[in-house]
Amino acid sequence: KYCIDQSNDTERHEQIIHMDMIYEASQVTIIAAGGDNANAGLSGVGNTKRNPQPLIRLGNITLVSSMSSQTGIIANSKWYSRGWTLQESVLSTRRLVFMED
To answer: Does 16 score more than 90 pLDDT?
Structure first.
């Protein structure tokens, strides 16, 4: 959405046919897997909230939950249902995934 000029059909087509090379050559792909739509933002960044990580304090010891299975959360996300996400997931050498948790 942001890297390709969506109002320029020629540029958009040219970039889309090269997405495999773009993802393979990227240093990192930032994935917004949280939220119900593309405008939800990155959870935990700026004013976009994220679910707090459960913890309990027992005296001077703090136990922190590792949360749910990340694979399961991603597979149930709106991001996972979008068409281009297969390319992001398979072709990116490194991914930084933002989820509600």
So the answer is: no
